[in-house]
């Protein structure tokens, strides 16, 4: 029974009680007032009668409290998921480094880049936190994580492994080398926490759809899946309508997953700084107008949770826009801090979705 139905039943029961019980009380009140003992007995009898009369209309207290709680929890989860990408940046020159270097390229190491969740009462209530290595390891313990997409997804996978293994771990050198083999898949099992991470090189949305269909065919699904594609389509096909269609096909394949489906995230495209793109072809095909057409296609397909779809957005667009040109050397691929932030956003969304806290 829904909360509104419960309240309606209570109101109906109260109205019936007034008609059936309270009107005779008024009629008998004058007579009962002459004898206090009789009055007390009458009030007790009437109270019991009212309770008995209303009982069928009341749900159990536990059901009522559970219903109210579920509404509050659902609202909290939905609100926090919508706020999890609300990040503020502080990007400033490093005091110990001269900024009068060659202007031919922008050296991202010239700047300190710090981020945190914005401050507001709503965000404070969500209690977002930057997870440590041990926190992330505990959250993902025994999980199968799939990260699929283009170079943005590869950078995301690297940041996640850096957090789990530790940035100074000797193992990270071999991980980085193997993960960045050109246009290839990568898989790693971290025995200490039983975590399997698969990176799938899938630069087109149709590749992502094929993977979803493969999981369905095998009836085997990852616990967490992060996917995103668009840059290759933008550069090599440059057709927003075709991208729109591919996203709609992907959405259909995701919507018909079984009830126990993975936590699914969409890794958004970064902001492109056209003047910094390193080839003439990129500057011509990946124009601001075409980028915005692709962004509109994503919104129109309602693939994202914010528009009623199944996937939670990891808003690389917002992260790169706010960090700005000082966080990229080629206008397309951004500094590691962007993907570190995206990993923390995903982990906090997982905490919200799974009703967990640190």
Short overview:
This protein has 14 helices and eight strands.
Architecture overview:
With 358 residues, the chain is α/β, with parallel strands linked by helices. The protein has helices spanning 3-32, 36-54, 61-83, 121-126, 133-139, 151-165, 171-179, 205-218, 231-236, 240-255, 280-285, 288-300, 316-323, 336-353, and strands at 87-93, 111-117, 144-149, 186-190, 195-201, 224-228, 263-267, 312-314. Helix 10 packs parallel to helix 12 (288-300). This is Pmr5/Cas1p GDSL/SGNH-like acyl-esterase family protein. It comes from Hibiscus sabdariffa (roselle).
List the helices and strands and how they pair.
Layout: H1 3-32, H2 36-54, H3 61-83, E1 87-93, E2 111-117, H4 121-126, H5 133-139, E3 144-149, H6 151-165, H7 171-179, E4 186-190, E5 195-201, H8 205-218, E6 224-228, H9 231-236, H10 240-255, E7 263-267, H11 280-285, H12 288-300, E8 312-314, H13 316-323, H14 336-353
Parallel strand pairs: 3-5, 3-6, 6-7, 7-8
Antiparallel strand pairs: 1-2, 4-5
Helix pairs in contact: 1-2, 6-7, 6-14, 8-10, 10-12, 13-14
Protein name: Pmr5/Cas1p GDSL/SGNH-like acyl-esterase family protein
Keywords: Membrane, Transmembrane, Transmembrane helix
Subcellular location: Membrane
